[in-house]
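Input protein
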Amino acid sequence: MQHVKIPQDRIGVLIGEGGETMREIEAAAEVRLDIDSENGSVAVETVGDPVLGLKGPEIVRAIGRGFAPEDALRLLEDDMMLFDVVDIDAAARNKNDMKRKKGRLIGEGGRTRELMEELTGADVVIYGSTLGIIGAPQEVDAVRTAAEMLLDGAPHGAVYSFLEEKHNEMKHKGMEYHRFPGGQS
């Protein structure tokens, strides 16, 4: 059994209307969730496939870090799906710096965050003092690198170029890997 602590305001999202989301997670990840809505503590107990059960705490953590339940459940799509968190607070000197860095990651009208998602294929959420990422290893790696570049003060243009380069790299590798076995050209 694992214990995961999530923010108070995310407990409702984890439980869902009438417990619907909680039941969906329990069924999909073959776990049992014991949610303490007083302190935000969630006990995750594996009741089925132990490999699937390992993803249970990650799904709860992802919802706690601001992901919608359907995005968090993407972690079950594939054994390679990862959930990663970039701590914005650790890169900030004070509250104002934290706000500024968070703003750089979100971008004007959310454009930077959207571009990170579009160009990598990963899901990206900025919540509180963290940036959460769900995706395949190369997608998560690209978003983490882009976020770290922005937090280090790199110009947005340079970060967008980096993301486009990564996008083309992944697309090219994907094309080679998923060749159409039809012989048509």
About this structure: The chain has two domains: 1-74, 80-176. The chain has a mean pLDDT of 91. DSSP finds nine helices and six strands in the chain. The CA atoms of residues 46 and 54 lie 8 Å apart.
